[in-house]
Known about the structure:
By secondary structure, the chain is mostly helical. The protein has helices at 15-37, 44-74, 85-116, 136-171; strands spanning 6-7, 10-11, 121-122, 126-127. 65% of the residues lie in helices and 4% in strands. The two termini are 25 Å apart.
Amino acid sequence: MKQGDQSGRLYVYSGARRAAHWLTPVLLIALYALGWVLPDIKDPPSWRFAMTAHQSLGLLVAMIGAARLMTVLVRPAPAAPGVSRWADAAARTVHALLCLLTIALPVSGWAFSSVVGGSISFFWLIEVPPLAAENDALADRLLGVHVALGLALLGVATLHVAAALFHAAVLKDGVLARMLPRRARRL
Ligand code: HEM
Ligand code: HEM
């Protein structure tokens, strides 16, 4: 993957990295919304449709997360200008953690779907194999893990967004611009 163009002095993430970055919160909003409404859907065909959408979008997030984890580790972006060493290390740790959580959370959902014995489909095209055999005793625990990882991702993502907005609104140091399309790069 291309690292990103060095337009002037400002490093900018490549188009592919920016696309993967902004697609993730869009998919996550849909996933949290589906996750929370699923238990209230009483009509079986509607529930099945929403469940397949939740599973498919979740597995897609995991694939994007795995590709991004590799990129973050193998092709790290240069430190943003004027950012201290500890802030840079903190940002990199948070980025790696976000990628890890976007893998671990869907995998926990996959494991939960497996032990409850329901079918798992990727966009109605591929029947995804279960990760484990049916096991009622494990189901409650795995749903607990899925919910806990969901809350952990919300927490870390909130921290990350707050840091990005702090850079844009208070420090005004161009860190947000590294992740924006060309025409929006005044932030
Ligand atoms: C980043 C990806 C994902 C997010 C953010 C997410 C989020 C959520 C949330 C918020 C809930 C509601 C939990 C509750 O309070 O009861 C939920 C439930 C669930 N998730 Fe996920 N999930 C993701 C991926 C997956 C995947 C990949 C699968 C399966 C392959 C899956 C299977 C399930 C199942 C079976 C439930 C329980 C639904 C029900 O109670 O009827 N999730 N998820
Ligand atoms: C919607 C609000 C969000 C904003 C405003 C935002 C902003 C940013 C900014 C400005 C950067 C560049 C930081 C730098 O150059 O050092 C960045 C990088 C990054 N962000 Fe976000 N972000 C958001 C949501 C998310 C979410 C939901 C995730 C993952 C779950 C995420 C994961 C990452 C990762 C892994 C990086 C490292 C660069 C890369 O993608 O290769 N961000 N974000």
